[in-house]
Amino acid sequence: MIKLSSEVQAALKNKQPVLALESTILAHGMPWPENLAFAREAEALARTDGVVPATIAVFDGIVRVGLNDAQLEALCRRKDFDKAGVRDLAIVMAQKRSAATTVSATLRIANRVGIAVFSTGGVGGVHRNVNDSFDISQDLTELSRTSGIVISAGAKAILDIGKTLEMMETLDIPVLGYQTDEFPAFYSRSSGFPVPARVDSVETIVAVFNKRQELSLPGAVLVANPVPASNEIPLDAMAPVIEKAVLEAMNLRLSGKAVTPFLLKKIVAFTEGQSLKTNIALALNNIRLGADISAVLSRSND
Ligand code: PSU
Ligand code: MN
Questions:
Q1: Which atom of ligand 1 is closest in space to residue 30's alpha carbon?
Q2: Which residues have CB atoms below 5 A from the ion given as ligand 2?
Q3: What percent of the chain stands above pLDDT 90?
Q4: Which residue among 24, 104, 146 is best mutated to probe the pocket of ligand 1, counting the most ligand atoms within 8 A of its Cβ?
């Protein structure tokens, strides 16, 4: 069962802008209690821009779109929320378990209920040791088949960014660099890789989305929105931290969906929380842009 909060339901019915938000970033990407402070700030920020936030997660087998404060707190505080990608969703629902949704699962649910725009922190992609591990995030396959506009700060350097970009091309995932020529590397504004296409306005992002609809192309448009310069951690400062975290994960022979949350926790610990501040800043920046996109999109459909 999928349940919409009354606020989200009313907004969709009245064709007001809604912005989907994922929950894995809360349950598995940030520590308590910073995750809850971030979640509240994120929702408030969307509302300031006149956009209804719709955080998505599964509670006791029920997919909820739009959470109240008690649900947000449970998601952030409790330790028993699983991490559900799109392939896990039906299983979690059938077994009446609770789970946070990743980019892939959130995109699919958002699309299912008619929410086109979704802001996250970073998307998953091709992992660095892919030759051995075969680890490529489901986010990529879902982005290639489910329509929407997804805003992220690029991809974290825990991934092989070059291979991730190649895979995105293979899968027909358009990558739009927002006011940037370089694909951002999450904590850093630069990655050394050019963006496949640069756009400088929200109107162009919406136009690309609408043209894909006109062409009946499946799949999402990925907007790469660099972290604000004042919050950036330069790539060369992050590189050794990330290498150390990746090495630890390999030594522990971690695989599957445990890998990304493990790396994120290690990076926060190694940077003594500095990376968390950057993570929060870039995610809020993506919500600001997502709210603008959602507002322009809803006007373009009038
Ligand atoms: N990257 C981040 N922060 C995150 C994630 C990725 O910088 O919180 C989360 C997102 O929910 C993403 C998921 O969809 O991890 C990808 O997991 P995996 O690599 O296991 O597919
Ligand atoms: Mn994986």
A1: 8
A2: 135
A3: 96
A4: 24
CATH of the domain spanning 2-300:
3.40.1790.10
Whether 157 and 186 have beta carbons less than 8 Å apart is answered as yes
Please choose, from the candidates 70, 21, 27, the residue with its C-alpha nearest in 3D space to the C-alpha of residue 42: 21
CA 50–ligand 2 middle distance (angstroms): 35
Catalytic residues: 22, 156
For the chain, the average pLDDT equals 96
Tell me the C-alpha distance between 275 and 69, whole Å.
26
Å from CA of 214 to ligand 2 middle: 33
Which tens digits make up the pLDDT trace of 275-288?
Answer: 999 999 999 999 99
From the list 179, 177, 129, 132, the residue with the least C-alpha distance to 155 is 177
Task: Confirm or reject: Cβ of 124 under 6 Å from ligand 1.
Answer: yes
Task: State which of 83, 103, 140 you would mutate to test the pocket of ligand 1, scoring each by most atoms of that ligand within 8 A of its C-beta.
Answer: 103
d(CA 127, CA 157): 9
Give the mean pLDDT of 77-105.
98
Output the CA 124–ligand 1 centroid distance in Å: 5
Q: What is the DSSP string of 102-170?
A: -HHHHHHHHHHHT--EEE-S----BBTTHHHH--B-HHHHHHHHS-EEEEESB--TTB-HHHHHHHHHH
State if residue 153 touches ligand 1 by the CB under 6 angstroms criterion: no
- Mutual angle of helices 274-300 and 34-48, in 10-degree steps: 30
- Spatial separation of the C-alpha atoms in residues 114 and 65, rounded to whole Å: 11
Calculate how far, in angstroms, residue 37's C-alpha sits from the geometric centre of ligand 1.
Answer: 20
Q: How far apart are CA 208 and CA 145, in angstroms?
A: 16
- Predicted pLDDT at 157: 81
Longest dimension (CA), the chain: 55
| pLDDT of amino acid 302 | 74
The domain segmentation of the chain, as residue ranges, is 2-300
